[in-house]
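Re: beginner question about structure tokens

> Can someone show what the tokenized structure looks like for a real chain? I only ever see the sequence side.

Sure, here's an example I had lying around. Input first:
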Amino acid sequence: MVKMETSKAKKKWKREYYIRNKEKYSIWAKLDYLKRQGRFKIGEECEKCGKKQQLVMHHEDYKKPFKIMVLCRFCHQKLHKST
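And the corresponding structure tokens:
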């Protein structure tokens, strides 16, 4: 039962997060679509440490959707913890 309750809580949290952040999801979806079409390319290594695996896109300002930083997951988490 605990796993099912956790799963329900996680789904509820995701749904609420989506409702609060529709603009972010819209930008993520557009960039993902353009990446898959080959019309938008991101760097191939982390801009902080140079790692080439587990890369993510970081937006400083969602009003500028194409101004992104490419970071590894570790550096991305570290950046969010420091701000």
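Each token stands for a local structural state, so reading them left to right follows the chain. The chain has three helices and two strands.
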